[in-house]
Amino acid sequence: MTALRQTLKSAADLADAGLISRPRAEEIAEVADRYAAAVTPAMAALIDPADAGDPIARQFIPDRRELDRHPAELSDPIGDDLKSPVPGLVHRYKDRVLVKLAAACAVYCRFCFRREMVGPGKAAALSESELANALDYIRAHPEIWEVILTGGDPLILSPRRIAQVTAALAEIPHVKILRWHTRVPVVAPERVTDALAAALRSAAKTVYVALHANHPRELTDPAREACARLIDAGLAMVSQTVLLKGVNDDAATLEALMRAFVETRIKPYYLHHGDLAPGTAHLRTTIGEGQALMRDLRRRLSGLALPTYVLDIPGAHGKVPVGPSYLYETENAAGYTVEDARGEAHAYEDCCAGPTATV
Ligand code: SF4
Fold first, then answer.
1. pLDDT for 298-316, tens place per residue?
2. How far does residue 114's CA lie from ligand 1's centre (Å)?
3. Does residue 275 have an active-site annotation?
4. Residues 6 or more apart from 131 whose CB is under 8 A from it?
5. 109 lines ligand 1 (CB under 6 A)
6. CA 153–ligand 1 middle distance (angstroms)
7. Whose C-alpha lies nearest to ligand 1, atom 8?
8. What is the pLDDT of residue 359?
9. Residue 247, class by beta-carbon neighbours within 10 Å (0-12 exposed, 13-18 middle, 19+ buried)?
10. Can you tell me the distance from the alpha carbon of 272 to that of 249, in angstroms, rounded to the nearest whole number?
11. Phi–psi pair at 318, nearest 5 degrees
12. Average pLDDT rounded to a whole number, residues 251-258
């Protein structure tokens, strides 16, 4: 396939590019109308059209099953709207807020937990007045230590716009950390220019970039170079991965992905259990399957390369680690049973010197 120059945005585009057959394009046209579709040239180049189970295609090419909505699935799976005091801002945890700067993305992931809120037809970015209101809210809440810039994908905005946001947040004394959530360095690495890196950088604040990638093939040479450009500019990077059936739900794939992150100077941060986004049941694993994979990963990887497996509790209750657990209370004894990485159990006596005496 010759290299594409433009993002593919419809079922017909995907067929024209040879990524799917014409009958398949007819089958999924309705899905692409319902939920936004976009495949960048970088991701299209990774797809093997001859492989019916291609893990990159599975993430970006619409599937008929997306029209099947499970009764447990929710339009707002993690409850953003329940914790939104001003438009575009979510205040779920005391010391941090999300600012949803953009409602568009370079690609549209078929499992996206904000799929009802992103894509064409939605306001592409926060307006000036909405951004001003969000900044006023942050200024008025001294408990906000960290601001997470998200969307959509905020790195689709121009470096000029990003620099404005960085500068405005840099002037708020109680904000110490800026964290940008993005897929851009992987799905559109050509957008990660020196100008973008400079716009993200702040002399006054510590800036993290949280990179979303789900399969080791996504960490191409251009993607690794894009990440290096950000890190060499002084930004720290962590990763986020969504556990996806048929994409990365095997230990070897996750192991390769986590090693690729660490080799790129990115600390693996979260492995997300698939959210209850509408029409995504065919891409979700069970929590038990996720826990078994984490057990396997602990046997294979150093702590540096291990993410935390988390579930975002529906109803805006926040994220929690969901195991597996290696520690069990032992009945009728002051102790525990601890399981090692090989699955062998060991007794552990939980002892300490007791309370410090007061004079
Ligand atoms: S890039 Fe993020 S926000 Fe955009 S579709 Fe993918 S998961 Fe959703």
1. 999 999 999 999 999 999 9
2. 7
3. yes
4. 88, 99, 101, 165
5. yes
6. 7
7. 112
8. 59
9. buried
10. 12
11. 95, 180
12. 98
